[in-house]
């Protein structure tokens, strides 16, 4: 797989490239147990099942990752990100299957790297993702990936064409994690999720999903899918062949967390402030709506040369001007419509923006 597809959920780790054989298997002398152990043992059990399907023994991979075989039967057990990276990389090499046994035929070493290369020449993220989905069906007929847009929401969904059995969860989670990670890498930006859904009941380790897929999670849904703002599809790719070669050779872990910038954050903030003024009065409320922390929201806006208060003022002022000139609403209703809790604070803010009271502005605009 584009390697280490489901590592430590606390680090939001995605890998979007197949590692070199030298890079993906750690020396037994190196500690892989350092760091928080948050990755569910269920994902390791799925890798072991992949070995069974291929008729091979996982003992060496478990040893390299320092995972005791007796831990596999403990659903509450967890491993570190490094352990997950180690065992998944070792398994892909030993099995020569980047899908780790999910599908009815192997995906030989380099399959996902080939898909990544084929998407690189696309003119936009939307075209790259459609190309990825189309090409994926050529190498694995058990599932089909599809990209669709409804209104302002884009959806990447998986249609299952065969019974994935006990590897179903690991497969669906991994495929969605990989394509999301690749999308972030291609546009060099965070791509915040509006939600994710899965066709199976909530597993015992369901708490992990909120970190793997930040945003609302729904289980027992019709299909596996992730949802995000459709405007990201129009963004141009920011990677070239040199960057692709480096990624494939060095197996750099591509993480959503590493992308400090969200290239559409300012637009998303403006939209949320304009569309839901009552639900975005505080930074905490707005951050929750955008599925980021208040600290991250403020930091990223500062990095883009603006602030939440500046954007609030821009949006509120524009909406207030429109309502004052195009409607006969009383000032109290205008104040509420643009997100002020009372008329006095609205009048005070409007005078700061324009040098006029709302009534003076309205009269001047209609004279």
Write a structural description.
The chain contains 16 helices and nine strands. It has two domains: 9-255, no CATH class; 265-366, Arc Repressor Mutant, subunit A (Orthogonal Bundle), CATH 1.10.10.60. β6 (193-197), α8 and β7 (217-218) form a beta-alpha-beta unit. The protein is of the alpha+beta class and 367 residues long. A five-stranded mixed sheet has the order 4-5-8-6-7. It has a two-stranded antiparallel ribbon with strand order 1-9. The chain has helices at 21-24, 41-54, 59-64, 81-95, 111-120, 125-139, 168-187, 209-212, 241-250, 265-275, 283-290, 294-303, 308-326, 331-337, 343-354, 358-366; strands spanning 13-15, 37-40, 78-80, 143-150, 153-160, 193-197, 217-218, 224-229, 253-255. 47% of the residues lie in helices and 11% in strands. α2 (41-54) runs parallel beside α4 (81-95). The protein is elongated, with a radius of gyration of 24 Å. 39% of the residues are buried.
């Amino acid at each position: 797989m584009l390697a280490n597809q489901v590592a430590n959920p606390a680090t939001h780790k995605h890998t979007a490239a197949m590692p070199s054989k030298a890079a993906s298997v750690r020396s037994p002398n190196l500690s892989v147990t350092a760091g928080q152990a948050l990755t569910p043992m269920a994902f390791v059990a799925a890798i072991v099942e992949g070995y069974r399907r291929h008729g091979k023994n996982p003992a060496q991979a478990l040893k390299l990752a320092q995972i005791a075989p007796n831990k596999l039967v403990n659903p509450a057990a967890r491993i570190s990100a490094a352990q997950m990276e180690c065992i998944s990389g070792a398994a892909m090499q030993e099995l020569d299957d980047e899908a780790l046994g999910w599908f009815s035929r192997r995906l030989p070493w380099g399959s996902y790297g080939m898909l990544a290369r084929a998407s690189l020449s696309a003119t936009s993220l939307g075209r790259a993702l459609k190309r990825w989905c189309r090409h994926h069906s050529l190498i694995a007929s058990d599932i089909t990936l599809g990209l669709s847009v409804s209104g302002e929401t884009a959806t990447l969904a998986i249609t299952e064409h065969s019974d994935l059995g006990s590897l179903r969860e690991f497969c669906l989670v991994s495929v969605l994690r990989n394509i999301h990670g690749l999308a972030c890498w291609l546009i060099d930006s965070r791509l915040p999720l509006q939600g994710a859904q899965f066709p199976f009941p909530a597993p015992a380790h369901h708490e992990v999903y909120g970190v793997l897929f930040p945003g609302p999670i729904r289980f027992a849904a019709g299909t596996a899918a992730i949802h995000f703002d459709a405007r990201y599809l129009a963004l141009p790719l920011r990677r070239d062949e040199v960057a692709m070669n480096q990624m494939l050779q060095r197996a750099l872990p591509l993480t959503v967390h590493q992308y400090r910038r969200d290239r559409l954050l300012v637009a998303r903030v403006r939209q949320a402030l304009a569309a839901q003024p009552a639900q975005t009065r505080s930074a905490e409320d707005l951050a929750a709506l955008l599925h980021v922390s208040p600290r991250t929201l403020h930091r990223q806006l500062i990095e883009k040369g603006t602030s939440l208060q500046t954007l609030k003022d821009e949006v509120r002022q524009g909406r207030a001007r429109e309502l004052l000139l195009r409607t006969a609403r009383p000032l109290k209703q205008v104040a509420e419509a643009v997100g002020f809790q009372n008329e006095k604070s609205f009048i005070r803010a409007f005078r700061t923006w324009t040098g006029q009271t709302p009534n003076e502005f309205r009269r001047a605009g209609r004279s």
